[in-house]
């Protein structure tokens, strides 16, 4: 009201206050508030040039008998009623045109013979009638389409079933198993093997079960990362992050563990030995060779030790809800470039970090700078996403140098971090901070008591 000009007030029919512009009509049920509001509006003066829209959350609100009677009296059309099939367009238009006009409408050759109001009503009626016909045809086509798609799905499922029945082993994800339960039931499998069972939610395993199963074999390592739960509170307080595999192991259900590893060189395997008592190295580890551009080698080219913690104390920084450490960005870049110059291929190197923010910065920094140096970018991933994978050399950026969080201290995440490399593992971090955690302290003790110390502020190169 304060900022309206006189021209604006005149244009909007004298609406001068907020109550005039935006009236709020709040009344309890059974008072016919909508009916009264529309009637009051229509009774205020002569018919307006433009129509008034009545919008309802549900079409039933416009279908009440009192409301319909008022609409017919005031020459109104209820499109919601026509679309729902309760009335035809003709029945609704008769009060607007009159029986005589409707009967003579087919004989009209020139709409200009009608009054302006009647002419507009006839055009609107024709549009509604055409819309009604198209809507009916659309509904018929939808029903026909659904029927054809159902037939096509049935034929496809029959073909898939015939193909699957000729197979002795069928592999699929837990999601695929849940989606295709109708096919799985018809196959009637007798044995279910669950790979990475310690990383799968209990509910995901249960949805794969069928009546025909006679044996379930679960394979996994519950000392690595647990299943991911969208709501963290449900995982920590309700134990939904505990897999069926780990639950059974914790309750002393009979199980056995393979005690010979065939991935890591002995120096790397020693770091996870406290988590796996009795873990032995296969004989093939001692004779395995690393392929490089300069020929096969028993160790990482250019490096004196297969394991090293490159120490620094430069603080981390907050970044997009995560953490980054710019010093470790440069350290990882220098080490990745040096390893490639020493003869390793880019696909043999992986850079890991627990923090998504550091991963994004590493990807951008390494991609840009390595290409500028004529080298290929290396793989950069989070520790969690790299579970189950491995590579010849792993550079681990821990990011944190000032505060040690529960996220970094979890033994499951530490286990995955230290067990991905085959020939070389190089850790970037602050040993003074890590030794505050009991699990990391054991790792530091192993590194510091080695015949040649594996912790320092400078890398021992060849």
What does this structure look like?
This protein has 462 residues and is α/β, with parallel strands linked by helices. It has 2 domains: 6-68 and 164-258, Rossmann fold (3-Layer(aba) Sandwich); 266-456, Rossmann fold (3-Layer(aba) Sandwich). The protein contains 21 helices and 14 strands. It has helices at residues 6-11, 18-21, 33-42, 65-73, 79-83, 89-97, 99-104, 116-165, 174-179, 181-187, 202-206, 232-237, 244-250, 266-272, 284-287, 326-341, 356-372, 406-409, 411-418, 431-434, 438-448, and strands at 191-194, 215-218, 260-261, 280-281, 290-292, 295-297, 307-311, 317-319, 322-324, 349-353, 379-382, 391-397, 421-429, 455-456. The strands form 5 sheets. Strands 11-10-12-13-7-14 form a 6-stranded parallel beta sheet. Strands 1-2 form a two-stranded parallel ribbon. A two-stranded parallel sheet has the order 3-4. Helix 6 packs antiparallel against helix 8 and helix 16 (326-341) packs across helix 17 (356-372). The longest helix has 50 residues, at 116-165. The radius of gyration is 37 Å and the shape is elongated. 23% of the residues are buried. Residues 86-98 have low confidence and may be disordered.
């Amino acid at each position: 009201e304060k900022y309206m000009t006189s021209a604006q007030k005149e244009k909007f029919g004298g609406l001068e206050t907020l109550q005039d512009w935006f009236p709020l009509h709040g009344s309890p049920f059974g008072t016919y508030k909508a009916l009264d509001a529309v009637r009051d509006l229509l009774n205020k003066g002569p018919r307006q040039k433009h129509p008034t829209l009545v919008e309802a959350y549900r079409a039933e609100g416009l279908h009440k008998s009192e409301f319909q009677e008022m609409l017919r009296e005031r020459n109104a059309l209820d499109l919601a009623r026509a679309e729902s099939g309760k009335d035809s367009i003709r029945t609704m238009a008769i009060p607007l045109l009159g029986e005589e006009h409707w009967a003579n409408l087919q004989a009209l050759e020139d709409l200009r013979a009608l009054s302006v109001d009647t002419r507009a009503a006839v055009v609107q009626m024709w549009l509604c009638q055409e819309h009604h016909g198209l809507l009916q045809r659309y509904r018929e086509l939808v029903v026909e389409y659904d029927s054809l798609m159902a037939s096509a799905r049935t034929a496809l499922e029959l073909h898939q079933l015939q193909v699957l029945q000729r197979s002795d082993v069928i592999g699929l994800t837990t999601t695929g198993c849940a989606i295709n339960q109708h096919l799985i039931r018809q196959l009637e499998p007798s044995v279910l093997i669950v790979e990475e069972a310690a990383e799968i939610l209990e509910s995901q395993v249960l949805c794969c079960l069928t009546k025909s199963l006679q044996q379930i074999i679960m394979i996994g390592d519950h000392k690595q990362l647990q299943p991911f739960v969208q709501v963290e509170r449900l995982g920590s307080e309700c134990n939904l992050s505990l897999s069926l595999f780990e639950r059974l192991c914790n309750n002393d259900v009979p199980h056995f563990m393979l005690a010979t590893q065939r991935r890591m060189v002995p120096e790397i395997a020693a770091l996870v030995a406290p988590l796996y008592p009795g873990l032995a190295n296969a004989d093939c580890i001692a004779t395995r060779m690393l392929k490089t551009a300069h020929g096969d080698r028993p160790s990482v080219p250019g490096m004196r030790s297969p394991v090293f913690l490159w120490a620094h104390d430069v603080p981390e920084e907050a970044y997009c809800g995560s953490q980054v450490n710019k010093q470790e960005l440069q350290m990882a870049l220098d080490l990745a470039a040096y390893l490639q110059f020493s003869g390793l291929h880019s696909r043999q190197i992986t850079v890991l970090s627990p923090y998504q923010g550091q991963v994004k910065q590493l990807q951008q920094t390494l991609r840009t700078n390595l290409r500028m140096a004529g080298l290929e970018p290396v793989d950069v991933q989070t520790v969690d996403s790299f579970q189950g994978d491995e590579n010849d050399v792993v550079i681990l950026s821990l990011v944190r140098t000032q505060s040690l969080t529960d996220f970094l201290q979890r033994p499951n995440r530490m286990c995955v971090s230290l067990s991905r490399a085959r020939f070389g593992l190089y850790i970037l971090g602050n040993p003074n901070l890590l030794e505050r955690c009991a699990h990391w302290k054991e790792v530091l003790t192993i590194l510091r008591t080695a015949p040649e110390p594996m912790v320092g502020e400078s890398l021992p190169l060849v």
